[in-house]
Design goal:
Elements (H helix, E strand, L loop, with lengths): L1 E6 L5 E6 L1 H13 L3 E4 L5 E7 L8 E9 L8 H12 L2 E5 L11 E2 L6 H9 L3 E3 L3 E5 L3 E10 L1 H11 L2 E3 L4 E3 L19 E3 L1 E6 L5 E5 L1 H22 L2
Antiparallel strand pairs: 1-2, 1-5, 3-4, 4-5, 6-7, 6-10, 8-10, 9-10, 11-14, 12-13, 14-15
Length: 238
């Protein structure tokens, strides 16, 4: 479940709740319409689009913010491993045959997730449970299982964690490469200095970096990268 806050271009706000399917449908529509979508480390997303009212060439911003009602908390490497296992194929045991009562509450994956850990994943909203169904264990022991899948909130939180961006402050006054030549910088204190406003930006994914004309421009490029990665990810969701 998500808390959905809509901030209209005129500043009015509206708040409502959205289930996972509604939130996913909203994000898919936003990406299809080329709105700006960015995942957040809390497991939510921010959707922005420009609105032109005809009275100004400067657009206003319409914003929709999604935040999980249950905070996902810190996604550790151990939790990420569990989520990766669940993404493959998983189910949770609800009721098992008498000789296998220790399996009840356990999420069955390649590695196996103990009942206590499985319960925490469900409580934190990191995984969602499907409808129960009857199954047979080892040919003749009946048990009741529920399909398990990683929640949208967990997917968004992991995505945002994988794309943490940073920017570097401009170098300021520096000696240019042509120090021996007359430049505009000779008028600055100390002479021979020029001001460099370029700011570098990078991402924890290690696959992206850029240089902006000033730190604000570097932040804009970093945010654009996060939005592009979020859009590409949403397109892959079934």
């Amino acid at each position: 479940m998500f808390l959905k806050v809509v901030t209209h271009a005129d500043g009015d706000t509206a708040t409502e709740t959205a289930c996972q399917s509604q939130a996913l449908r909203l994000l898919r529509t936003a990406v299809r319409r080329n709105y700006r979508v960015e995942a957040t480390r809390s497991g939510g997303a921010i959707v922005e689009r420009n609105v032109y009212d005809g009275r100004s060439v400067v657009p206003r911003t319409h914003t929709v913010t999604l935040e999980p009602v249950t905070p996902v908390g810190t996604i550790t490497s151990t939790v990420r491993g569990h989520l990766a296992d669940i993404t493959a194929t998983a189910y949770r045991i609800e009721v098992s045959g008498r000789p296998f009562q220790s399996r009840v509450g356990r999420i069955s994956t390649r590695q196996g997730i103990p009942p206590a850990t499985a319960a925490r994943l469900v409580t934190r909203g990191l995984v969602v449970l499907g409808e129960p169904y009857d199954a047979v264990l080892i040919g003749y022991h009946p048990e009741v299982r529920r399909p398990v899948r990683v929640s949208l909130a967990a997917c968004l939180a992991v995505l945002a964690q994988d794309h943490r961006t940073h920017t570097i402050a401009p170098a300021g006054y520096v000696h240019p490469a042509d120090t021996g030549l007359v430049t505009a910088g000779v008028q600055t204190p100390g002479g021979g200095l020029v001001y460099s406003r370029t700011s570098a930006a990078g991402c924890s994914c290690g696959a992206w970096s850029a240089t902006g004309d000033g730190r604000d421009d570097a932040r804009r490029l970093a945010r654009k990268h996060r939005q592009q990665q979020t859009g590409e990810f949403i397109r892959t969701l079934a």
